[in-house]
């Protein structure tokens, strides 16, 4: 990358054309500022992969230029990659008090806490990395203590919104700083980098208080135990659940490791107010009168191992769902999770519970943390950017966000719809997008990082669908005659009624192949292997319409 | 099962607590009438399974009592299991003209057409299987030529609704026969068996004509090529697409095998009116002016191999999506398909197309074929049943449907929420549910039916997530000393940087295990195997946090 003194460059290592693994870079000359370092959960085609993080090879090649990692907020898609980044690059991490609490949990798990430089910031600090100065502004989102970022460079000011909505009646008075945003806009914004999650949705995001009203109502109507599930990180929603519990004289029990961890951090750092005697251990729930208890749990997305799923399946050790208990899903399913959520709702109904579930517009039990079209237009109007880079969304969302920007005055041709790795270079107030730096998905699989190749995934796919056959034979090294006859072992391959017969035929075929090849002078083992695979593969396909993986193992003695 | 002369029994072999594989049985004394024989598509946990059909062991045990299979309509979840049933039981199949057309396509594929007894019926016939008489009534749904069924038995009348909605302004004047339903209700209904898919949705289902209006509007605004995707079986929607194409002077090309097949059947049998010169071959599309062509294709559910996905990926041989083409998704994603549909929408946007997609309430491009709460209440009101069996739905839908039934006058305790296999027996106007007959999922995998056992699926799951290691060693039969040293082959297992080293260590460990065991007198091979698995498994887990399948193959010579 050029190190021309006057060049301002902006690019994403993750977060564009996807929801997840957000990681953005602003570089001025030889100064690199990283914004966020998220992870993404793999889809069903990535068999056995635990997590996806951004490809950071550009950063590894430019280690010495990195000044800071600044984290806008504590969601997984913004902090999940941090431990993996820190294992390779030692960079100071800047975040607000609550966000740092969540990052610390993560670093503890990876045993990285001691050696990491964590710096607490708030909306009023200025960070100085000459010639870049960095300021912040408060925003609203579905997690406390979120920041937008202003990077002042000699070329001009770059604003990164983080994830945001405008909530004019936020819980716990955590107001977004609209006046400061207006001021930033007045001073002039060269580039606005803004999130696009809900760019397809018309209107303004409803206030989180709406959820509070519906929770209160449901609590007032509940006759027995209440079980309520939401995102552990949505501390403001949890505050409203706590408030409703106070109102209805109920104790609160927490289920699920992340719920316990996050609530602990939120209370300790002053983001959640819970009366001292209110929390009870999950083991006490069964001894309390049902009308005096609320169970707050993880698993609102249908995660099969989380607390709600275990409650629905009746195999939670401490808590049982009983007839006429009220179960509230205070979260809408994220696209892709609909089926597992409805499976859980179904089980809860079968246990006789009163279940409050379904689309948020119907139950009022969820509002989005991401701004709708009017929120996005308000941000664009406040910032009045010369150039615009929509991020944090699939292509169609970025596309819609561009239309919104143009509707409020961003000049045509001044919006850059990037891919991860596309670089926008700005020099003398001219922006152009011509370069690319390396980017992509790095897979985390067990404890190996980034070592899972396409071939392994292809193998897993074949194994998962059709299973495999191992054919073992021992040949005489001298003349390739049989020392032991072919024997076939199968795993994950279809059991037909005539399965034994099928395997016998496979062994016979193998023998035929070997015998035939022997008549042709001396053959190499890989020829035996290839021909056995071919003959057996064809035979099995005609017989079963399946293509199991075939592994001939030939031992020569 | 009892063959007492006066016993009326009703049960499901599939379709309850699930959406899919509908199959219901009404038995009076020794007369069995089967209603529908559907299939279900497997979810992501059933690795390699193609299709799920009902367990028909009860029918196999009572073959001689089966009088007829009556099919309510031609959707996959009502006809998909027919070929598999017919391979085991020769039963005459009764269905309407259009439904038979779709069944014939299926039987042709399975080479069963010639030997099957297919009998065309319509709403006005009476079938006589003494002492059961069967009558029908027309209903509306998202496929033409649907029937509800009235089975008159000496015990009383049993009504099965099939899938239905009330559409008072149906396309092609295919009116539901509300007067006949009222008449049936007046004569007295002992048991109503009614579908429950949309029992959770308030209101009345919108008319299919609403979709027609939106399609027309979109066609009038389109400037270049139109590509529109919907369910092949929704012939009424296709009629409205044809009408809009006539209005805007466009030719029609069909993409996708099922689209071509169904449209052919629908035209041949008089359910779809297409002007003679309107259809063009897909290969001609690129030679026609874009403003004069509509491409109608399959794949609205995001199926990765269907036409729409191939168009979106730019790898369709005949047709390309070009900038400013209009692409319409005239179908809402079925729960579970949201993610693959949005992936396709994203690709279409990237090709520069104008995409009309998203929730049906927003675009008006889809209405459900299943009645909402008011439709269900209207059916219940018309039929005034003594007993009620809600079917065709997950538990929560059946539960809501019961509440609806009670709201319009069905007595409490007269609704039976069954599981597949639960039998309702009715005798002297008393209904009770005490017995169970065998039921469950039969898996179709390749050409084997029902032969895939849990163990195979467990193997596939392990293989798909962590892959496998085959460890081969040859021992001397006499003293278990090594003839050839351990050698390890892996597939689908993680490639770490030090992978060779890992395998070397596995071989060493194997050798150690064998040597150690040899000191203990003569060991059996299964002990070697077990101990190798244990030692290598533990080692690999500590090193990689993975549990690949380990297959020690020991050859004794």
- Can you tell me the number of structural domains of chain A? 3
Arithmetic mean pLDDT of chain A: 91
Chain pair with largest interface:
A-B, 62 and 62 residues
Q: Please identify, by name, the CATH architecture of the largest domain in chain A.
A: 4-Layer Sandwich
| Spatial order of strands in the largest sheet of chain A | 7-6-5-3-2-1-20-21
Helix content of chain A: 25-40%
Content-based structural category of chain A: alpha/beta
| Fourth-tier CATH superfamily name of the largest domain in chain A | Ribonuclease Z/Hydroxyacylglutathione hydrolase-like
Q: Which stretches of chain A are low in confidence, meaning pLDDT under 50 for 5 or more residues running?
A: none
Distance between the termini of chain A: 57 Å
CATH topology-level name of the largest domain in chain A: Metallo-beta-lactamase, Chain A
State the CATH class of the largest domain in chain A: Alpha Beta
Task: Find the count of extended strands of chain A (DSSP E, 2+ residues).
Answer: 26
Separate helix tally of chain A:
16
The share of residues in extended strands of chain A comes to 15-25%
Shape of chain A: globular
Family (chains A, B): Belongs to the metallo-beta-lactamase superfamily. RNA-metabolizing metallo-beta-lactamase-like family. Bacterial RNase J subfamily.
Subunit structure (chains A, B): Homodimer, may be a subunit of the RNA degradosome.
GO biological process, one term (chains A, B): rRNA processing
Main location (chains A, B): cytoplasm
